[in-house]
Amino acid sequence: MFENFRKFETTLAGRPLVVETGKMAQLAGGSCLIRYGETEVLCTATMSAKPREGVDFFPLSVDYEEKLYYVGKIPGSFQRREGKASEKATLASRVIDRPIRPLFPKDMRNDVGVVATVMSVDPDCLPEITAMIGVSVALSISEIPWDGPISGVSVGLVDGKYVINPTFEERQKSEMAVTVASTDSLVAMIEAGANEVSNDDMFEAIMFAHETNKEIVEFIKGIQKEIGKEKVPFESNDPSEELYNAVKDFAIEDVKAALDTDDKRIRDERLKPIYEAVHAEFDEKFPEEADKIDDCLYKLQKFIVRRWLLDEGKRVDGRGINEMRPLNAQIDLLSRVHGSGMFTRGQTQVLTVTTLGTMSDAQLLDGLDEEESKRYIHHYNFPSYSVGETKPPRGPGRREIGHGALAERALLPVIPSVEEFPYTIRLVSEVLSSNGSTSQASVCGSTLSLMAAGVPIKAPVAGISCGLVTEGDRFMTMVDIQGLEDFFGDMDFKVAGTKKGITAIQMDLKIHGLTPEIIKEAFRKTYDARCKIIDEVMLPCIAEPRKELSKYAPKMLSTKISPDKIGDVIGKQGKVIQKICAECNCKVDVEEDGSIFISSLDLDDANRALTMINTIANDPEVGSIFRGVVTRLMSFGAFVEIAPGKEGLCHISKLDVKRVDKVEDCVNVGDEVIVKVTEIDDQGRINLSRRDALIEVEGLVPEDSGEAPRKPRGNRNGGHGRRNRD
After folding, report:
1. How many CB atoms lie within 10 A of CB 291?
2. CA 15 to CA 158: how far, in whole Å?
3. How far is 207 from 218, CA to CA, in rounded Å?
4. Contact 125, 37 (CB under 8 A)
């Protein structure tokens, strides 16, 4: 039945890597089931027979699909089926897309669809790495024109040693999480998060991964040689040389003059009449290629910008090769938010707002890995007005999700732990104006916003991008690329970090890959630039995180109790914790490990709730004074609740400084009284004394003391302001 079934095996990082073809998805252009450890991914690649009409780009779609039944989970949605791709699935799709896209012919317009469907997950073998290799196999053995293969691996730094594809346990201890994709000779993609590692350590990790990738590329080439289909010809969408040369001769000087400005708006206005004049000149002369005239003008702009950079060392806006655009940092732009910061670099401007919430506000995750929630969340919005366009607003696309995740990864190493700062932290970066590298501006704006909000980050983080133009063996890099240099250049190498080291990298390429020399130079230039941003722009704006939170932010306290006492704190049907929240005007979150988080807009209310909880979960100290409520009267005394669900006995002889014949003559059920803990017996029963509390707090004198009565001293609020009182 499966006469074309083939199986290819090798090892990767000491674990078996198996590729099976000819059994599943046989109608796809190329397909394979790839197994790495017990992670299994079905990868397919298919191309349309004809080019898509009316598009000026290569229509490639890459989809990484998660199915929760592959890890034995039922989706948590109302319909109990998978909905739109999760954020992690979207990020995995982007990681696979970036190294394979530059290897397709740039003038091809046939639709190509790549799908990686996760079938099984082994926590020690990342499914996105497995999928990247499987996609490379599927494309290589298909008839689709593609200049691969590529391979991808992850690399960690564990106990000072580099580890390829670290296991789940190793990933928890690793100082970096770096994904590297390579061809047989060049580094094609880098995606990294790191705990402030040096340029040298990061470079060595990339090269270490590259060597492993080269071995897997050779393995894939072997599969391609045995069963690969012949690549099919395609219809090129490039304009003819005759048309391009005619447009170039006609408009090159005008286009040069139009591009020579640092203002995107002026540039766009200057180009409009040029486009009109070129169409008026050539629409009738080249009627069959009239729809390619705009492509010629785009190609001409690219030619001019690249020649300026390579031949003259000239940038469109007149800056030096290593010069950044004008920088500006501001904080406290919005009145009632918990923190705000705006960072401007030339015509790129990003405003980030910080919101602090309780631990119950943490985001719940429903995915294939072990992570179930996260307390630090970063969202990035890119409205159409930021580039001077008008489009109806939609939900976040892949770009917005990717840039938000990059900024989140960049700042994660400096976010304080939950023990240091028991808050959920949400950042929202609003792109107000875009002319290149908004993702890195959002990193800078987010640092400002966090510090303004009083989040005790460990160090300020800045981000910057490095561009590249190549021609044969020649190359040159430039720092802080703007839009045109991104569109017409070969690389957008984004690096974020502190002055100590790198925290995040994302590299986008339009060429096949980078040499080690280019990577080293990009690291050096981005380090110098981000140190300058931190020292000369960000720290003069705000030197350190504020010591106090905004008055509009919740005040948070935390404690930890024995898990055995959780039931006492919550109470039957939640009555105890509900009472604490009502009386103290606060919110209380209880974790399974006994961690308790209390939030309130008033710190005194939070402290009262904390005292109640500690009293319930732990026996109060002898000598502590509480304000309690009388719950029951007996002939021998009154029971007083000193915290919800926690009460003690005040004997009739201890009810007042004078003799009491009947309990009812002194107190009634519902009365608020101050009491002092005098004893806790072997069975945990609490004995209280109102008499001793009145003497100590109110300054009253017992009748039998022989002393003259004294005036009450201190405040009359039953113990407010003293320790151990609520």
Report:
1. 14
2. 18
3. 17
4. yes
Element (H, E) at 668: none
Please classify residue 299 by burial: count the beta carbons closer than 10 Å to its beta carbon, then call 0-12 exposed, 13-18 middle and 19+ buried. Answer: middle
Q: How many CB atoms lie within 10 A of CB 665?
A: 11
- Tokens 């699935």 belong to 89
Other Cβ atoms closer than 10 A to 306: 18
**Residue given tokens 């941003």 in the structure block:** 533
Task: Provide the CA 336 distance to its chain's centre, in angstroms.
Answer: 24
User: Which amino acid is residue 625, in one-letter code?
Assistant: I
Contacting residues for 612 by C-beta, under 8 A, at least 6 apart: 580, 583, 584, 643, 644, 726
Measured between alpha carbons, how far is residue 342 from residues 401, 431, 456 in Å? 20, 10, 19
Give the integer Cα–Cα distance in Å for 4 and 27: 13
C-beta of residue 615 within 8 angstroms of C-beta of residue 646: yes
How far is it, in rounded angstroms, from Cα 315 to Cα 327?
A: 18
pLDDT score for 370: 66
Interatomic CA distance for residues 357 and 550, integer angstroms: 12
- Residue pLDDT, tens place only, 465-491: 999 999 988 999 999 999 889 999 999
- Strands (DSSP E) contained in 66-143 are 110-120
Q: What pLDDT shows up at residue 719? A: 37
Which residues of the chain, if any, have pLDDT below 70? 1, 77, 366-370, 701-726
Contact 315, 321 (CB under 8 A): yes
pLDDT at 556 (0 to 100): 86
End-to-end CA distance of the chain: 77
The pTM for the full model equals 0.84
Where are the alpha helices (H) located in 342-436, listed in sequence order? 398-411
Task: Give CA angle at 561 (558, 564), nearest 5°.
Answer: 150
Buried b (16+ CB within 10 A) or exposed e, 163-178: bbbbbeeebeebbbbb
d(C-alpha 604, C-alpha 610), whole Å? 10
Per the DSSP assignment, residues forming a β-bridge with 123 are none
What confidence score (pLDDT) does residue 608 get? 87
Alpha carbon dihedral 409, 411, 413, 416, in 10-degree steps, equals: -130
Task: Specify whether the backbone of 111 is left (phi greater than 0), alpha (psi in -120 to 50) or beta.
Answer: beta
The whole-number pLDDT of residue 716 equals 36
pLDDT of residue 705: 55
- Residue 424, both tokens: 């959920």
Using alpha carbons, select from 295, 277, 303 the residue that is nearest to residue 488: 303
pLDDT attached to residue 75: 76
Q: List, for residues 96-115, the tens digit of each pLDDT value.
A: 999 999 999 999 999 999 99
* Contact of 642 with 620, CB cutoff 8 Å: yes
Neighbours of 370 (CB within 10 A): 11
Query: How far is Cα 21 from Cα 19, in angstroms, rounded to an integer?
Result: 7
Task: Pull the structure tokens for residue 30.
Answer: 């190329």
146 contacts 110 by C-beta, under 8 angstroms: no
Could you give the CA distance from residue 210 to residue 472 in angstroms, rounded to a whole number? 22
Find the helix packing angle between 87-100 and 127-141, rounded to 10°: 40
Q: How far apart are CA 491 and CA 467, in angstroms?
A: 5
Which residue is it, tokens 């400096």? 414
- Which two tokens mark 201? 């350590």
Instruction: Please give the pLDDT value at position 367.
Output: 60
CA-based nearest residue to 446, from 417, 425, 418? 425
HSE of 181, CA atoms in CB hemisphere, 13 A: 34
Amino acid 650 reads C
Element at 273 (helix H, strand E): helix 264-282
Matching residue, tokens 């169409």: 279
CA distances from 12 to 6, 154, 165, 253 (A): 19, 11, 8, 55
Tokens of 451: 């510090």
